[in-house]
Amino acid sequence: MQWSKFKDKDLVLSLAHGIKQKAKKFDRLRIMHVCGTHENAIARYALRDLLPNNIKLLAGPGCPVCVTSSKDIDAIINYGIKNDCTILTFGDMLRVKGSAYSLLSASKLGLYVKMVYGLDEAIYYAKQAKKDAIFFSVGFETTAAPVASIIKSVNLPENLSFFSVHKYTPNGVLELLKAGKLNIDALILPGHASIVSGLAPYEKVASSFNLPCVAAGFEPVDVLGAILMIINQLEDNICKVENEYERLLNYEGNKLAQKALNDIFDITDSIWRGLGIIKNSGFEFKKTYNYLNAKLKFNIPFSDSYTEEQKGCRCAEVILGTIEPPQCPMYAKICNPHNPVGPCMVSDEGTCRNWWEVKGDI
Amino acid sequence: MTFDKITMDHGSGGKLTLELIENIFKANAGLDSAILGDIAFTTDSHSITPLFFRGGDIGKLSVSGTMNDLLCVGAKPMYLSSAFIMEEGFLISDLKKIVQSMLSEAKSANVEIVCGDTKVIESNKGFYVNTSAIGKIIRPIDGSKIKEGDKIIATGNIGEHGFAILNERENLQLTSHLASDCAELTGLILPIIESDLEIHWMRDPTRGGLAMCLNELCYKRDFGVEVFEELVPISQEVLSISEMLGIEPYYSANEGKMVIVVPPKDASKILDLLHKHPLGKNASLIGEITKDHPQKVLLNLSYGTKRLLSMPIVEKMPRIC
Q1: pLDDT, tens digit, for every residue of A189-233?
Q2: B321–A339 CB contact, under 8 Å
Q3: A29: which of A276, B49, B70, B119 lies 20 to 30 Å off by Cα?
Q4: What pLDDT, on a 0 to 100 scale, did the predictor assign at position B234?
């Protein structure tokens, strides 16, 4: 079959060789990426197997489904059932459990939930619905920006509102580092999300924590290229933000998308599943858009006491890179893609799901 | 896995479908058709959205799928029955188009449609077609002769039906050229069945795609499968849509392809025969049977690394971003 040049075999093997040679100087390097699509590419092309043993490639909190709080899932389920609303959201979100139910399993209790591919489709379904429709708006700046931009540009049906659980990657990473929760030597930055945010927000990450940061695309050449750039920085004893994904990403990011985000959302504190409240890491509607904010419009009640994780689930440790999926006792035994106990087994971006699919029950 | 209710995943063609057949229906899960002496018999029900799609419609699909199931066990398709369950309000003009497709596909397979049934149900309940067929066994192919070192052939580019349907059903507008590969394969496969070349196993890789088909090949057997990524035929269109959606082509359905297991001595001759037919022009040897990892399908990547091509459990969803 024909692959793009970013999958080129000779280039990939040459990069892997370069990494092996240069990595000899280091006892151990822990490199974390913060994008589920990176984990998907790494697993799919078995890129970890091309790295020497002293380089650990860790999956960080980069899957939007995995970091969505069970408290938010509980709230939307409870409200939807009690008030007979249509809940619209992405397919990946349907199977993630709150404290008791996922959106999908709650449909047996009477919740009407419809999978959509994007906000434009949600608008279409809301127009068909005769009752209130709530878009469970999930994802990092990659999805938050299109949502903001569509809100600005189209006439929304009056019965459609939004339950935003959007997260902002740079601040999430920064706060986790401040809290000492990430034991890493370097970061691979998310290519797609950075196309929106640009790379400036990561300068503080690189300088304050002495971490080489390289934004990368999602092909094998991108990931290995980023690792080599990181090693080069470490070799030269420098820590800066670099861009491997120059074909699509520029340092400033997408100004139009940033303006749309700034126009619609404020940056607020946000709950990340298993990690608690992270300061300035979420997107919430500005006051002028309160009429679109389902949490306020409908006064959706949140439970004060809730179980953040299913008992025994170690997803939080997986997304902090402290354990690998097989170290969780439930992995591949009672937790699998059909019956995901924890969120990391749900999405194609989830670390456990990716490991399960390409490594099985090892 | 145990369940108290049917879920959509039980119909996905993946592991749960297989378990349903084994645990509830008790049918012979290894074959697509029953071998009854010198007669093969099979049945299949069809529901699809949209009913009309680029490359076919539910009529063409219902005949081709059933013909291909007969071919899998080494039979020459002979006679077909059809049953329609139609919602009230269904357009007669659409029904005519569907029936015409069925007749055309049956003619292509040299098969006679000999009986049928019609039921009308309440409006908005859908349109379904069941087809059953019998064929004459030319020589039985049941998988019992599979050996280590046997070669695995795919008769053409994979993944086209699944992505074409997804593109149209969800109005993704990601590609304007991709069409379903929906086709009956009598003209392609019958000459091989009728030749003196050995065939150890055949299966049309429909729901669950190539990955499911290969997992079924080694399911509960004492051998495994090795596939070579660089040898799997995939069109540029499918690769592009696959990258866009984050779903690998190995998991996307096919409706006009066959996976054939043959002894090494006959592999190149069978490939030559396939290449002579338009539906087999992209046929490729994609892998082999191994004793190294029983019941597992390993994908050999071009970089020299390996990974599992797992049996799908849930329907693949496009990723969020």
Answers
A1: 999 999 999 999 999 999 999 999 999 999 999 999 999 999 999
A2: no
A3: A276
A4: 96
Residue A50 and residue B303: Cβ atoms within 8 Å? yes
Q: What would the pLDDT profile of B183-212 be if each residue is shown by its tens digit? A: 999 999 999 999 999 999 999 999 999 999
pTM: predicted TM-score of the whole model, two decimal places: 0.88
B10 touches chain A (CB under 8 A): no
Whether B5 is in a domain gets the answer no
Per the structure, the complete domain to which residue B92 belongs is given by 31-137
Same domain, B162 and B84: no
**CB-CB neighbors (< 8 A) of A90 in chain B:** 320
Contact A348, B297 (CB under 8 A): no
> Are residues A143 and B320, on separate chains, in Cβ contact within 8 Å?
yes
Q: How many domains does chain B have?
A: 2
pLDDT at A280 over 70: yes
State the nearest Cα–Cα gap between B69 and chain A, in angstroms.
27
Here the CATH number for the domain that contains residue B177 is 3.90.650.10
CB contact under 8 A, B314 and A348: no
Same domain, B194 and B124: no
List the end-to-end C-alpha distance of chain A, in Å, as a whole number: 30
Q: With contacts defined as CB-CB under 8 Å, which chain A residues touch B236? A: 2
C-alpha–C-alpha distance, residues A162 and B236, integer Å? 38
This complex has an ipTM of: 0.84
Q: Distance between CA A340 and CA A335 in Å, rounded?
A: 5
pLDDT at A2 over 50: no
In this structure, are B161 and B268 located in the same domain?
yes
Contact list in B for residue A37 (CB cut-off 8 A) is 246, 319, 321
pLDDT (mean) for B139-156: 96
Does a structural domain hold residue B18?
no
Verify whether the Cβ–Cβ distance B313 to A336 is below 8 Å.
yes
Is B20 among the domain residues? no
Say how far apart CA A217 and CA A244 lie, in whole Å.
Answer: 7
State how far the Cα of A207 lies from the Cα of A216, in Å rounded to an integer.
Answer: 19
Kindly report the CATH number assigned to the domain that includes residue B104: 3.30.1330.10
Determine, yes or no, domain membership for B283.
Answer: yes
Closest residue by Cα to residue B162 from B118, B95, B207: B207
